[in-house]
């Protein structure tokens, strides 16, 4: 059979895989075995799946394939962060980042090639949307990174903070989370997943009813509609009041909070007044704030504020009983910005406490 007509198993959840096997005259229970090989062992070559008969392996290889994003480059930062450029079947490339932090390892993955949202400070936004990623490509990044870092057997966190707006590619993103959650595969708990969004209100409302609900991070970045509509264009359709109202009603698990991300742009949104307004906007919401001093780049018409200015902003929030973290510029030498340092109410926490605050609960 020519390769083009083989079905790509990376796009199927376990139920779909059972159906695909059955419709080709195979036993349904092989789906679980295949999931274990593909997700838990990182094996995609049917010939190596030694608990299947030789005959079955040969037939599967004729009928199916498992497409995995290919590691095109793997850049290591001095601080241990690794940025992967992954090549997809159509030769388009995406980025995914590995952050080796305590208490758990984190993979930062993409949901689209490019992004349609057009935030003025974001390099991905400059690309525009090239295309959505499929569910298999989103989950495939985790398979590729877990294999490359030797973490298939270890717990890890996932943040949807790479390229793209996850709620603009809702169905594929949620299907990928279901595939990663499957107990036959990597068993990733939704508590270990954080979805970051600019706040597409209908998407947030759908998310509120998901059985597998990830932690939520809202990219706020501004405290007035006038300024936010400039920096984050979707705000024109979904203004601050609507987003914050949706957050207020969002069903949170016990002890969990919504993270509000705030990219700090020197002289633009980093004043004491902005900080006080931000604290007022978030009152009544179980919130924590993640300040992200801008990572400057050519073509981005903004500058990073001084550390003193960032600290002053953080202190104003902490004085108002908000938990504040400041994202450390990690992996800057390889342009992979992730990883954070937390100040809560002005006190420094241990690295393990910091990560526990950020990800998880
Ligand atoms: N589209 C989603 C998720 C991907 S962007 C979202 O915007 O939330 C992940 C985070 O990186 C967002 O909070 C975004 O604002 C931030 N970011 C984008 N460009 C940045 C830059 N130049 N410097 C620092 N953070 C940036
Ligand atoms: Fe960048 Fe996120 Fe804005 Fe898209 S939504 S342009 S990825 S910051």
Give a verbal description of the structure:
With 361 residues, this protein is of the alpha/beta class. 32% of the residues lie in helices and 20% in strands. It has helices spanning 14-23, 30-40, 54-63, 123-127, 135-148, 170-181, 201-207, 225-231, 240-248, 272-281, 307-319, 351-358; strands spanning 7-8, 64-65, 70-76, 82-87, 93-99, 105-108, 112-114, 129-132, 156-160, 193-197, 215-219, 258-264, 287-293, 323-326, 341-344, 347-348. The strands form three sheets. A twelve-stranded mixed β-sheet has the order 3-4-5-6-9-10-11-12-13-14-15-16, sandwiched between helices. It has a two-stranded parallel sheet with strand order 1-2. Strands 7-8 form a two-stranded antiparallel sheet. Helix 1 (14-23) packs across helix 2. The N and C termini lie far apart (49 Å). Bound molecules: S-adenosyl-L-homocysteine and iron/sulfur cluster. S-adenosyl-L-homocysteine (SAH) binds next to strand 10 and strand 12.
């Amino acid at each position: 059979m020519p390769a083009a007509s083989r079905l790509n198993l990376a796009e199927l959840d376990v139920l779909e895989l059972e159906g695909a096997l059955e419709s080709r005259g195979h036993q349904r229970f092989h789906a679980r075995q295949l999931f274990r090989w593909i997700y838990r062992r990182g094996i995609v070559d049917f010939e190596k799946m030694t608990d299947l008969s030789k005959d079955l392996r040969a037939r599967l290889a004729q009928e199916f394939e498992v497409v995995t994003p290919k590691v095109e480059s793997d850049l290591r930062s001095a601080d241990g962060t690794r940025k992967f450029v992954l090549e997809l079947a159509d030769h388009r490339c995406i980025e995914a980042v590995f952050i080796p932090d305590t208490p758990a390892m984190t993979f930062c993955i993409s949901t689209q090639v490019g992004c349609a949202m057009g935030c003025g400070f974001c390099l991905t936004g400059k690309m525009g949307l090239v295309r959505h990623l499929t569910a298999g490509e989103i989950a495939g990044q985790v398979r590729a990174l877990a294999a490359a870092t030797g973490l298939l057997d270890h717990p890890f966190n996932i943040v949807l903070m790479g390229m793209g707006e996850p709620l603009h590619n809702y169905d594929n993103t949620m299907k990928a989370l279901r595939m990663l959650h499957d107990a036959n595969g990597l068993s990733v708990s939704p508590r270990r997943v954080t979805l970051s969004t600019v706040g597409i209100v209908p998407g947030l409302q759908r998310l509120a009813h998901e059985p597998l609900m990830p932690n939520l991070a809202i990219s706020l970045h501004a405290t007035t509609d006038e300024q936010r509509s400039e920096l984050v264009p979707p705000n024109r359709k979904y203004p601050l009041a609507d987003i914050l109202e949706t957050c207020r009603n969002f069903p949170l698990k016990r002890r969990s909070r919504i993270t509000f991300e705030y990219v700090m742009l020197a002289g633009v949104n980093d004043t004491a007044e902005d900080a006080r307004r931000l604290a007022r906007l978030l009152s009544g919401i179980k919130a924590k704030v993640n300040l992200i001093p801008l990572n400057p780049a050519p073509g981005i018409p903004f500058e990073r504020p001084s550390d003193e200015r960032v600290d002053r902003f953080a202190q104003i929030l902490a004085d108002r009983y908000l938990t504040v973290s400041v994202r450390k510029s990690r992996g800057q030498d390889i342009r992979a910005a992730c990883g954070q340092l937390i100040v809560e109410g002005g006190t420094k926490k241990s690295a393990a406490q910091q990560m526990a605050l950020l990800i998880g609960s």
